[in-house]
Design goal:
With 133 residues, the protein is α/β, with parallel strands linked by helices. The chain is built from two helices and eight strands, in the order βαββββαβββ. It has a four-stranded mixed beta sheet with strand order 1-4-3-2, covered by helices on one side. This is VOC family protein.
């Protein structure tokens, strides 16, 4: 019988896992898993998440420190983005102040002509989008 994998973690490289974990934890309303430090952080979604003790939990985000981390460039450049997160919100303009308060910033390049999404950079420089949903 074939085993079907389950998505466990989406791990983002960064210069400081604790800083980036705190940013996304506060933005998404997730908790930092016990034992979080500057090298590795797992986030726990509301209601529980994936961990060594809960392999059938919900997929979540994790962050790992990379000593020679280089922020991705987007939309092009020497270190192109490999992937990004889309975060659904009822209203982008209402959600944006929280992103900025937590240390995110609006990216200068905004490709959505109709305004259905807006591109931001997290504190480590990863692009992510708020998507009107």
């Amino acid at each position: 019988m074939a085993i079907t994998p389950k998505l466990d973690l989406v791990v983002l490289d960064c210069p400081d896992a604790l800083e980036l974990g705190r940013f996304y934890g506060a933005l998404l309303g997730y908790e930092l898993e016990e034992g979080a430090d500057r090298a590795w952080v797992n986030l726990v979604p509301p209601g529980g998440g994936v961990s060594k003790d809960n392999p059938d939990g919900r997929a979540t985000l994790a962050f790992q420190r990379i000593d020679d981390y280089v922020a991705p460039t987007w939309p092009g450049g020497a270190h192109p983005q490999q992937f990004h997160l889309d975060l659904s919100v009822p209203a982008i303009d209402a959600a944006e102040p929280r992103v900025l308060e937590l240390g995110g910033r609006v990216h200068e390049h905004q490709p959505s002509e109709e305004g259905s999404f807006r591109v931001y950079l997290d504190p480590a420089g990863h692009p992510f989008c708020l998507v009107q949903g």
